[in-house]
User: Fold this.
Amino acid sequence: MTTRTATRKRRDLLLGLVFGLAFGFFLQKGGVTNYDVIIGQLLLEDFTVLKIMLAAVIVGMPGVYAMKRLGWVELQPKAGSLGINLVGGLIFGVGFAVLGYCPGTLAGAVGNGYLDALVGGLAGIIVGSDLYAQVYPRVRAGIQRWGDFGDLTLPRWLKVNDWLVVIPAMILLTLLLVWLETAGL
Amino acid sequence: MDWLTQVRWSPYAAGAAIGVLSWLTFLISKKPLGCSTSFATTGAMLRRLFQGDKVEQQPYYRTIATRVDWQWMLVLGVALGAFLSAQLSGDFAWQWVPASWATAFGNAPLPRVLVAAIGGVLMGFGSRWAGGCTSGHGISGTLQLAVSSWISAICFFVGGIAAAFLLFGRI
Assistant:
């Protein structure tokens, strides 16, 4: 039994590595392991980051919802609140601009040879994460309780069939990409 | 096999590939793509070097993995995958100061590294506070239509655009 658990754990870790290899490969080919591309997005000059994210969502969403319908996967929406997501999201955003990488693309930037990511960014993000661990009990019991909505998804919030949100969302996000292209962005 | 050695793919091709990858991680590993928790895991592992298993008594570290797990290996894989991609296309380069930073602030490495460290602290802190990052909330969460992730992803860009405009003197 113990050896079976150990084997499963090894398989789990190996799969993580393989999926990560693919993820890093795609991020690098997309150009987002590069500081200039990320800052270009935040300065609204280069929309590569948004195009990659929206394409991933437009392709990923119907697949994941179809597998949910078939009973193959369960959704894992994260619980949240305005105190968690609004406040945390804005702090993250400022860090995103100052660092010029996000956590995944930071790892990719290290693989790309970018030393500002390795020496500055990597040390900073580990320290920042640990800093949060130190204040966690206080913020958890305080500001993070503001506007709690739990692990809500849009279809459950609107109380409609999943596909009544998935299909319009795919159409809207595709139109946004078409608009970006026609605007020459 | 040109696609292996191309420096850049269309963002739509790269994005669609990530979308398909998200199907596979859900189906095979029962996990969404995400990266930022692994940096907190790394922090806990470093703390264990000094504090031993006392680190696991800290309330936050009781809620996440404090040893190498699936996501930690994923992030390691991201670095290796990017290295492989950059090597195949000849895009790999040791570089201290990115071009757009050098244009705005000069090409001395120290200021760039210090600012990157400050940004890293803010981003590490913010990603733990928000419970995810541009991949966990921005891609995996939004594709599940999670309310928490849509709010987070919009705030990532609102905060990021405002800070970038201030930093580069565009306002």
In short: The mean pLDDT of chain A is 97. The beta strands of chain A are 80-81, 148-150. Chain A touches chain B through 121 residues (CB under 8 Å).
